[in-house]
Design goal:
Blueprint: E1 2-9, E2 14-21, E3 26-30, H1 37-45, E4 52-57, E5 60-64, E6 69-70, E7 78-81, H2 93-106, H3 112-126, H4 141-153, E8 159-163, H5 171-187, E9 192-196, H6 199-205, E10 208-213, E11 216-222, H7 223-228, E12 241-252, E13 257-262, E14 265-270, E15 279-285, E16 289-292, E17 303-314, E18 320-327, E19 330-337, H8 338-344, E20 351-356, E21 360-361
Parallel strand pairs: 3-9, 3-10, 7-8, 8-9
Antiparallel strand pairs: 1-2, 1-4, 4-5, 5-6, 10-11, 12-13, 12-15, 13-14, 15-21, 16-20, 17-18, 17-20, 18-19
Helix pairs in contact: 2-3, 2-4, 3-4, 4-5
């Protein structure tokens, strides 16, 4: 586990956190500007002046105010990836990577042979072997970030910190780098703290979600649970919805469709060429779900899930409510009008059918 007890007081801002986060996978840190996301990363890295509290990564204590422990940044085995790649412009990709490797050897007990193997592995993992002889100004934004990430993980850190690593990239370059970040998450065992403003990055990459607001924790937990909450929702408006993990259960070649099976049912979506058995994440938006009190017949909406109403809560507009449907192990959100709730006499605990008009593959 990652244990973070951090208190930072400023004249107009206070960060006050007491957290236990998973020791592997990506923990996304979401929140508005000024909520404390980057301050949290800087405190963990030892870059912020005199934060109070305790920072422990697994069995390793990096800071404990009460015990008088505060390791300087260079003694904390971490990698840090910023919004900009921070590559040295006068050095080639190989020279940039070797420069990072030398600094890693100077500040750790890693032996040369292990460090070299780690660097080669990071080059392979991020797919940058063909870029090694290029200069930074010859790379696309996505390629520069891949080099920066490879440089960070080559140091074999216990923790990888990523501060909006895709913020400076255009939409095309973000799509280019997403698969590499997913591979990084799936193949490395090190935990990652990933600051972002993007709901797309959260749904595609995160395992765990921490939401900050004005220096305080607004919500945290497995990403699917936090995104589906309707009390103090993290995502409001048209983008509110459920994140569901499943796998490709079947492919209908005639109609170019794939079926996604999960604990609670199955839905069809456009075939994207993924093989049967492939693990996927899908997003079902609340605006694309309707509720029926009996099994629908003679309808063009072919995705239908059986479940029961778990909760009915006010939505942003007074004419609407958010209905949480429990379908097996999954929660699905439906945005319906109050009039529909009244006319159908919808109540918590009632068995219903969810009609899903559209499904989005996110990962």
């Amino acid at each position: 586990m990652i244990q973070l007890q951090i208190k930072i007081s400023r004249s107009a801002f206070e960060l006050n956190l007491d957290l236990q986060l998973p020791g592997q996978g990506i923990t996304a840190i979401l929140g508005p500007s000024g909520s404390g996301k980057t301050s949290l990363l800087r405190a963990v890295a030892g870059l912020d002046k005199n934060p109070e509290g305790r920072i422990q990564i697994g069995a390793h204590i990096w800071q404990d105010t009460h015990q008088g422990i505060c390791l300087p940044t260079w003694q904390r085995p971490l990698g840090y990836v910023f919004q900009e790649s921070s590559l040295l412009s006068h050095l080639s990709v190989t020279e940039n990577l070797n420069f990072g490797l030398k600094r890693s050897l100077m500040s750790s007990n890693i032996v040369q042979s292990d460090a070299t193997q780690a660097l080669l592995a990071s080059i392979e993992l991020l797919g940058i072997g063909s870029l090694l002889q290029r200069m930074p100004d010859e790379l696309s934004g996505g390629e520069r970030q891949r080099v920066a990430i490879a440089r960070a993980i080559a140091m074999q850190p216990q923790l990888l910190l990523m501060d909006e690593p895709l913020a400076s990239l255009d939409a095309a370059r973000r799509q280019e780098i997403f698969p590499w970040l997913a591979r990084l998450r799936d193949e490395l065992k090190m935990p990652m703290l990933y600051v972002t403003h993007s709901a797309e990055e959260v749904t595609r990459l995160a395992d765990h979600l921490l939401v900050l607001d004005n220096g305080q924790v607004k919500a945290q937990g497995p990403v699917s649970q936090v995104l589906a909450q309707v009390v103090n929702p993290v995502v409001v408006g048209e983008d509110a919805g459920a994140l569901v993990s499943g796998h490709i259960g079947a492919v209908d070649a005639q109609w170019h469709l794939s079926r996604v099976d999960f604990h609670g049912g199955a839905v069809w979506m456009r075939d994207t060429g993924l093989p049967v058995g492939k693990a996927v994440r899908i997003r079902i938006l609340a605006r694309d779900v309707s509720v029926a009190t009996s099994e629908p017949q003679n309808t063009s909406i072919q995705n239908q899930l059986q479940g029961f109403i778990q909760s009915i809560s006010p939505d942003a507009h007074p004419s609407q409510v958010m209905v949480v449907l429990k379908c097996g192990a999954e929660e699905v959100l439906a945005r319906v009008t109050k009039r529909a709730v009244d006319e159908l006499a919808l109540q918590v605990g009632m068995p219903v059918w969810a009609q899903v008009k559209s499904v989005a593959l996110v990962a």
